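User: Let's play a game. I give you a shape written as tokens, and you guess the letters that built it. Ready? Here's round one.
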């Protein structure tokens, strides 16, 4: 392509070319005498992006096409033009529906040899559909199962014992021993077991 200086020279030397250049600049939203890129939204390009999305093409692939706006320009349009953002969202929903159709075709064509590969592809398609149309296809995250917590509850038993020799009465407690499974009498060095008392674990 000619340099900007060459184009300016042509515009001066050829009035018809200069008039056509001025009309093109005005149609592109560029005031006379300005330089550098100009980013203006084009409804026609927006409709073409919608059609390509509906055909199953991604925005990344569209942005790589040299005949289309770059991916950064597409996202700028999405931020600045609400109507274009709604158009992109529509295209995403249609693309998600097509992904579901593709998943059904893969499932029907699966064999014993291709079952694992098909499962991997279907998981990816489900994830893509949920990302492209979250209001229609919800993405459910799977959390690992939490281990079951075991809670051991131990009860202390109280009773009144009488020393047969002194007639002394006192409250004593029995607490289960997790190691043996039998209840143990709580330590009381000053108290003697009543004669003939049989303990719960068989001791006498």
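Assistant: Ready! My guess for every position:
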């Amino acid at each position: 392509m000619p340099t900007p200086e060459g184009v300016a020279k042509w515009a001066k030397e050829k009035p018809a070319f200069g008039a056509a250049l001025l009309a093109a600049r005005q149609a592109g939203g560029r005031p006379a005498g300005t330089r550098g890129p100009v980013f203006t939204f084009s409804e026609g390009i927006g409709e073409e992006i919608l059609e390509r999305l509906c055909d199953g093409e991604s925005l990344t692939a569209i942005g790589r096409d040299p005949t289309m706006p770059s991916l950064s320009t597409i996202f700028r349009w999405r931020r600045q033009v609400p109507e274009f953002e709604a158009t992109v969202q529509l295209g995403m929903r249609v693309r998600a529906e097509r992904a579901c159709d593709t998943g059904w075709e893969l499932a029907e064509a699966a064999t014993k040899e291709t079952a694992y590969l098909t499962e991997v592809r279907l998981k990816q398609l489900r994830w893509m559909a949920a990302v492209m149309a979250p209001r229609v296809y919800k993405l459910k995250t799977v959390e690992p199962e939490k281990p079951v917590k075991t809670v051991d509850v131990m009860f202390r038993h109280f009773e009144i014992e009488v020393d047969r020799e002194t007639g002394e009465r006192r409250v004593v407690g029995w607490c289960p021993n997790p190691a043996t499974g039998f209840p143990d009498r709580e330590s009381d060095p000053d108290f003697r077991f009543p004669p003939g008392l049989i303990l719960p674990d068989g001791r006498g």
